[in-house]
Amino acid sequence: MPRRALLAFAPLLSIPMVYTVHHAREEGVCDLLRACERASLMTVAISRRQRELLGGPPGAVIHHGLPPHRYPAGPGQGRYAAFLGRFSPEKGVAEALDAAVAARMPIRLAGRPHPVDAAYFREQVEPRLQRAGVGWSGEVGP
Predict the structure, then answer these.
(1) Against a cut of 0.70, is the pTM above it?
(2) Residues 46, 22: contact at Cβ < 8 Å?
(3) For the purposes of burial, counting CB atoms within 10 Å of the CB of 73, is it exposed (0-12), middle (13-18) or buried (19 or more)?
(4) Residue 55: burial class (beta carbons within 10 Å; 0-12, 13-18, 19+)
(5) What percent of the residues of the chain are helix, what percent strand, and what percent coil, each to the nearest 5?
(6) Per-residue pLDDT tens for 68-95?
(7) How far apart are CA 84 and CA 63, in angstroms?
């Protein structure tokens, strides 16, 4: 059962509940959140825009991010574009690949598709990975 399915039980709980949003806007989830507005529920989003789109009960924004001091900008000697993230429609990996080709810029990708994005990966991303100048490292750590 998806964790968001537990939202339906929030009005029945006598204890506070926190729901963290790690996904794109889903109308069904927004409906559940609106139904929980009187429950002891708080939401956490990863950006102000995500929080705005979410609606529903009160919420906070806690940005995902990296400490910039640990990843200083390099001198630009790589001469390539980079994409780092999940291979999903909302992250725009297919568009990043198209933009790199249009700019005649090599691109290196690091990331992977989530199982829910398998069809998108097969249909939109995988064919683009065969283009000249495209390199894919798979999933990477820090």
Answers:
(1) no
(2) yes
(3) exposed
(4) middle
(5) 40, 15, 45
(6) 888 888 888 888 999 998 898 888 999 9
(7) 17
